[in-house]
Amino acid sequence: MSSQAQSLNGSAEKISQSMSYVTHIIQDSMKSHETVNHTVQQQLEKTRLVNEEADLLNQMSDKLGQLVHDLEPVAANLSADYTQDSFSSSNRTVPAIS
Question: What is the Rg, in whole angstroms, of the alpha carbon atoms belonging to the chain?
Fold first, then answer.
């Protein structure tokens, strides 16, 4: 009986050690999972901020495009006025120096 009890005791000790080892592995896995989850959450937040920034840049681009479109007639008029002024001044007569 004594050797059988010692054998059972040894087996129980090995089972206990194995359970401790498995528990340790599970705890490490849970910590790794928490770290990965935290990293993923940070990346999602960064992605959200980048998307917001991209939306703002697209809005600014649209507004600048509209501004350029709105200013094209003004620029054309200024260009026509400048061309007309240049043409008029080139036809003026300059008095001769005597």
Answer: 42
- Per-residue pLDDT tens digits for 22-41: 999 999 999 999 999 999 99
Burial of 49 (0-12, 13-18, 19+ CB in 10 A): exposed
Is the pTM for the entire model greater than 0.85? no
